[in-house]
């Protein structure tokens, strides 16, 4: 929001540092919590935004923690020691390694296996789920698209079916005799799952996919930018200005 002076790093960096687990190099969701890639990636993002640089020893341990979450045989990526795969975790690990300047530690053969697993998570409708055969979801789709972009494997996606699925996430005004979710449905935006109203997080996930895939630049996005902009303006009026529609 271009207002760095409004929030001092001294207010939150000490808490982030306390959430670090020195034994494995990862970060937990709070002080004393076990390490997980979701919180590790969030911690890395916060420190990057605050201009905090980890010492070399800490970087090495965190890189090892992230690399150890990768199943080198299947290409699946786990969130913690319990070995539950999820496409969100794939993005957190790959983006985390990128922030730490350690993406080269993932060699080409391993990149191919990770990409193959991610591509197996694409459903018949064109979207991506958290695992193979899981429901397609806007957040998971972003994580897969962004992960494949980081890996340099975007060309492997079935872009035609994904493009169709993304287009269907663009909110359109419903007929009067259909179920209505309220005034937000008239404001544009994107939804991330079937039968869901639009909201700001889905609009980010889906909108980012259009950009990463180059659909906006190629003018094949087929959605109204003005309607998306109005949707966010609508949220601003409701949540920050107190307007009641």
Total helices: the number is 9
Which range best describes the helical content: under 10%, 10-25%, 25-40%, 40-55%, 55-70% or over 70%?
40-55%
Query: For the terminal residues, how far apart are their CA atoms?
Result: 26 Å
| Radius of gyration, CA atoms, in whole angstroms | 20 Å
Structural overview:
It is a single chain. With 245 residues, the chain is mainly α. 44% of the residues lie in helices and 0% in strands. The protein has nine helices and no strands. The protein has helices spanning 13-18, 37-50, 56-67, 87-99, 108-119, 138-151, 159-167, 200-212, 225-240. Helix 2 runs parallel beside helix 4 (87-99), helix 5 (108-119) packs antiparallel against helix 6 and helix 6 (138-151) packs parallel to helix 8 (200-212). The model is unreliable at 174-180 and 230-245 (pLDDT under 50).
Features:
globular, mainly alpha, disordered C terminus, single chain, 9 helices, 245 residues
Topology, pairings included?
Elements: H1 13-18, H2 37-50, H3 56-67, H4 87-99, H5 108-119, H6 138-151, H7 159-167, H8 200-212, H9 225-240
Helix pairs in contact: 2-4, 4-6, 5-6, 6-8
What is this entry, summarized?
Helix 2 runs parallel beside helix 4, helix 5 packs antiparallel against helix 6 and helix 6 runs parallel beside helix 8. It is globular and about 45 Å long.
């Amino acid at each position: 929001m271009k207002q760095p002076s409004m929030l001092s790093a001294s207010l939150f960096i000490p808490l982030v540092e306390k959430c670090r687990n020195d034994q494995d190099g990862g970060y937990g969701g709070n002080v004393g919590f076990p390490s997980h890639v979701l919180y590790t990636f969030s911690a890395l993002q916060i420190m990057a935004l605050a201009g905090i640089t980890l010492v070399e020893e800490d970087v090495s341990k965190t890189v090892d923690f992230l690399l150890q979450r990768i199943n080198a045989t299947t290409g699946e990526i786990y969130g913690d020691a319990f070995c539950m795969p999820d496409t969100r975790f794939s993005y957190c690990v790959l983006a985390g390694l990128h922030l730490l300047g350690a993406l080269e530690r993932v060699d080409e053969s391993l990149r191919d296996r990770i990409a193959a697993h991610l591509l197996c998570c694409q459903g018949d409708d064109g979207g991506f789920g958290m695992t193979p055969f899981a429901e397609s979801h806007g957040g998971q789709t972003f994580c897969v698209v962004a992960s494949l972009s980081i890996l340099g494997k975007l060309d492997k996606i079935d872009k035609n079916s994904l493009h169709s699925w993304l287009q269907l996430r663009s909110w359109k005004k419903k007929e009067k005799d259909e179920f209505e979710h309220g005034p937000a449905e008239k404001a544009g935006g994107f939804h991330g799952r079937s039968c869901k109203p639009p909201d700001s997080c889905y609009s980010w996930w889906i909108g980012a996919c259009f950009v990463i895939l180059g659909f906006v630049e190629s003018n094949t996005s087929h959605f109204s930018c003005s309607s998306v902009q109005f949707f966010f303006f609508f949220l601003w009026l409701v949540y920050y200005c107190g307007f009641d529609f």
